[in-house]
Structures are given as structure tokens and as C-alpha cells.
Amino acid sequence: MEKSYNIAIVGASGAVGIELLDVLHRRGFPVATLRLLASARSAGKTLAFRGEQWRIEELQDDSFAGIDIAFFSAGGDISRRYVPIAVAAGAVVIDNSSAFRMDPTVPLVIPEINGTDAREHRGIIANPNCTTAVTLMALYPLHLAFRVRRVFASSYQAVSGSGARAIEELRRQVSQTSEGREATPEVYPHPIAFNVLPHVDSFLENGYTKEEMKMQNEARRIMHLPEFRASVTCVRVPVYRAHSVAVSAEFERPVSVDEAREVLAKAPGVDLLDEPQRSVYPMPLAAAGKDNCQVGRLRVDCALENGLAFWVSGDQLLKGAALNAVQIAELL
To answer: What pTM was computed for the model?
Structure first.
């Protein structure tokens, strides 16, 4: 008989928390009991799971008694405080924040790429940044074939990456603008409706944002490639769901479009959509709600030695967060 697990979700009422419930249900994960945890503001509300209503409880120090696997998706500060408490109570934590991603004792895992790293956990496994995850799903199979050296990339990131409040802000600003009223920003420093913001996360002294540096730093750990370099510009766009990334990658070996297509057509978790003459290519609208990432617009990069340019779209609430986390739980 299949073993079932006592599951906790921290940040259950947020966009990723709600997605986690759906993914656990869709993939038939063996859940014995479910504990939904959030702030006092959400406590007492209910969420549906497998035909039942489950009550959200306020996150407390004693919330993890008897829990086997705890999914954390409530931000770095909450993770830093409560993850050690959950581990001490005997739970294995799969953390969706950036709190432990660069900790050398914590595996940073994309199951299709470095799933075996999960075996080395000491109670915590980190989920990568959503943009990094979507990009690496296409880049890693190419790396195995041609050995990547560096990438130049620009992201086109949906507002859902900032949570439920940002989705509502875009909806509100679209209405405000279409009615001739001024769009009022709250989540972002400027209006996001009918605009793009070259600003995702906070700026560092080197002029890049934290989000932009994550691609290089996290990819080095996930691909076991300490020399890997990435120059990235992260851009927030007025799209509700699914991130896209334009990538120019330089490899050690010569690469042709036909060879790259062959590699990507077989890659796990990736759909090849590359018939530009027929207007077939990845788009966030098409990638939203899909487990697989989409890759297309493949072409030899005319500015790089052994270069390939491509475009990838993926649902950052799924492969960038909830789906990847549940796949890690399945590995466990």
C-alpha cells in the first residue's frame, strides 16, 4: 500500500499556495492530512482540496507537529524564522523563497536537471527562482549537448510573480486607464498597465537587481557549473501569468539549429514550438496553466561564437514554483 504523508503549506492563501493545492490534487500526491498555514489575516478562511473544505490556521511555532513535508511559500522572512522550527519538529521543508538557495548545505533542485542532489538534504530543499527555472528547462538540455559558457538574457515577467495583490493592481489599472482615469501604483513604483518596468526586485551596488543575479548564481549551483556567467535584464510586463525569457547562449561546441531542435524535442518538461513562418512560437498566454515550458524562435546567434538565440515561456506559478516543489516532494 502506498505511504501517504502529512502535508503543511505555509502561505496557503497566496497565489503559489493555492497553486500547490491544485498540483497536489492533479498529480495524485498521497496526502494523509493537510495543514493550511498563513497569517492571522487569512486564518479562519477555507480552501477546497479534493472535494473538502480545509480551514486555514494561523502560522505558529507549534504548527509543524506530526508534519512530514512542509511547503513554504510566504517569503524569505517567514522562511528564515519558521523553516528551522519545522525541521526541528521532524518535517522536510521544500522552500520556495530565496532564503536558503545559496546555502551550500541546502540542495537547490530542479528535478529534471539535478534531482539526485535532493538526496543530500538535511531537512531543507530549496526551490529555484521562477525565471531561473523557466530558463534552465530549455538551457540545460542544450548545455548537455554543447556545453554552455555564458548567456545574455532579458526576461518578460508576469505580475503574478509578485503575488495576488499585483494581479489585482494590473486589473485595476487597466480599468482606470481605459476609463480615462489615472493609474495608481501600489505594489510597483510606477503603473504596470500598458507599461514595462526594467525593475524586478531590489537593485544591488553593481547596478543589477537581485533577480538578475539569481540567474547566474542559482544556475551555477543547479547545473554544477561554477564558471557559468549570465548577464540578465529582468523586466516586469503587463501580463497576468507566465514568464518569458529571450536568451542568447554561447557554447563551447558549434551548434546548429537542427541539432538544437533535436535536443529540445526530447527534453523532459519542455515543448518545442518553433515554426515561426506559421506564427508558431512560445507565448505567455499559451504557456499559462501548462506544466511544460515552451521553447522556440531558435536561430544561430549572429553576435556570438557558437551562439544560439531562443525564446522560452513558462508558467512561473507552476514550473517556477508549485509544480517544481511538488516534483521535489515526489522525489522524496
So the answer is: 0.95
